[in-house]
Amino acid sequence: MTKLHATIYTDGSARPNPGPMSGWGNYGYTYTETVTYDKPKDTKGLKVTTEVVKGTDGKPAEPVKIMEWQSWGGLKGRCDNNEGEIYAVTNAINFAIDNSITNLEIRSDSKLALNGAQDWMPKWKARGWKKANGGDVPYQNQWEMLDNALTNAGDLNIKWTWVKGHSGNVGNDLADECAKKGGALAGAGNYEPVHELIMEVQEDSKGKEKVVKPKKPKTPPYNRLLMHSKWYFTTNTGKQTSTDGRNVYMFGIHSDNELYGKRVSDASNSVVILKEEDKVLESLRAKQDEVSDEYIVPIYGKFDTIRGAKIYPEIYHNGCDYLQVGLRTPTLGTVTEQILTEPARPTGLAFIGLEVLDHLRQRLEEYIDPKTNTSKAGSQMVVTDVTDKFYVSDTDSKGKVKLVPSKDIVDNAKFLTVAVDWKSGKRSGTKDVVLTIGMDAPTKNMLNAMSKESPTIKVITWPESKQTIRYAVVVETEDDVGLYASAYSNLCLV
Questions:
Q1: What does the alpha-carbon distance between residue 175 and residue 160 come to, in Å, rounded to a whole number?
Q2: CA of 472: how far to CAs of 17, 96, 266, 363, 435, in Å?
Q3: Contacts of 62 (CB under 8 A, 6+ apart)
């Protein structure tokens, strides 16, 4: 019978310490000593075993990994990290028992868990779970569960290895991340353990081994009209919708988070109206409302971080269960300590900034439905189609006509100058305005992403006074529309 080996990294976490967001985490893999290849394989920098195994060529080789997984869970009550450490070791042993492991190496950064399991528990147990001085043993419940697991382990051969925490050890880092996920689950009131298979070697119908990785659910890409880096909203005011029932999102670019609302020339804003809600942003909004405790607070979300390749799918499929809630301010962040939302400060200027965004939203609503043009600005809004400045038609190898970014965009222009029509009172005319790429004009990536939707790009103008006009860019697809403007600098004398 082939012996099964396992290496399992264990870790515990608590926020605060002790606190209600406490959990445990494991990362591990099983393997055999049967070597079917000559050269060592990449194991993410992890040393599978301290023992030297000979390959078919007689040279050292790595054992064959046959399964890789991770697991985590939350602890009830105000627990500290040590309780999570002990529970993680217990869970590792139980996993080995359930999967007929013969040799188990536990790698932990907790000397308490390792010393307790090897040396202290037999003495405590013999004294009725008392220390040598007669005092109570801390974490007795956790130690008793570990003792039961060891009793049930039978002939399981266990090797105990200490690893230095937070030292760049990949396995320890993964276990730490899992433990923080467990703590986040506890903070959300969810204590159901999670077991996630990463890869497994299976035999096909012909008896040939192949590596199988569970298929991850597909995550639709975020809407590319969401261009700017900061997402703004206020808590406890509910989902924002347009007059036609679509979903409204307000964004911006500002050089300093603390100066949101200040009149700076390099600030730019956008208002995007989508037919389908962004599931991730709405999950974050709902969670932010929950932690803000009914107070109306201006919030900015770090959209550049939110739309990351790991974070966006995580929230899309699992909601906000794995987010860490800030302890002192109503912030949201990942278990890897990436901040996703923060209060926009100073509060007064932040609310002024939100008012600016609301003015732009009104312009966009007036563009969508001219019947709503009740304001002076809306009634004298003029629209100029500039799609041909951003897109040109091209024919691919199959003879299909498609839109591609224009040469000016491809050549990485930082700005475009376009002629737009305007009206102010009884006066009207044409004016050259400057559009800055990535601020009040689409980027090349944005244009490429939307090209299949045959978007139109227009510049709208409206009067600020008898002598001045303002302008903004409107990008529109069949279902969605976005407005982009530098609210303080998109101003022209006419």
A1: 16
A2: 50, 62, 15, 9, 9
A3: 35, 40, 41, 43, 48, 53
Closest CA to 460 of 361, 363, 379, 355: 363
Interior angle at CA 260, CA 256 and CA 264, nearest 5: 75
Distance, CA of 6 to CA of 371 (rounded, Å) = 69
Tell me the one-letter amino acid at 311: I
| Distant-in-sequence, close-in-space partners of 253: CB < 8 Å, separation ≥ 6 | 228, 229, 230, 266, 267, 268, 269, 439
Alpha-carbon distance of 22 to 468, in angstroms, equals 59
Question: Which residues on adjacent β-strands are paired with residue 72?
Answer: 25, 194
Count Cβ atoms within 10 A of the Cβ of residue 29 and give its class: 0-12 exposed, 13-18 middle, 19 or more buried: buried
Judged against a pLDDT cut of 60, whether residue 469 lies above it is answered with: yes
String of DSSP letters for 189-206: T----EEEEEEEEEE-TT
pTM as predicted: 0.84
CB neighbours of 260 closer than 8 A, spacing ≥ 6?
230, 232, 252, 254, 298, 300, 344, 345, 349, 350, 353
Residue, of 45 and 156, whose pLDDT is higher: 156
Fold of the CATH domain 5-212: Nucleotidyltransferase; domain 5 (3.30.420)
**Tokens standing for 489?**
């600098």
What's the Rg (C-alpha) of the chain?
Answer: 30
What tens digit of pLDDT does each residue of 303-320 get? Answer: 999 999 999 999 999 888
| Residue 49: pLDDT over 70 | no
Partners of 476 in the β-ladder = 456, 481
Among the listed residues 430, 435, 419, 434, the one whose alpha carbon sits nearest the alpha carbon of residue 494 = 430
Q: Are 65 and 30 in contact (CB under 8 A)?
A: yes
Element (H, E) at 390: helix 387-390
List the structure tokens of 56. Answer: 């078919």
- CATH 3.30.420.10 domain residues, the chain: 5-212
Contact (Cβ atoms closer than 8 angstroms) between residue 147 and residue 121: yes
Taken in order 228, 233, 239, 240, is the CA torsion positive or negative? negative
Cβ 402 vs Cβ 393: under 8 Å: yes
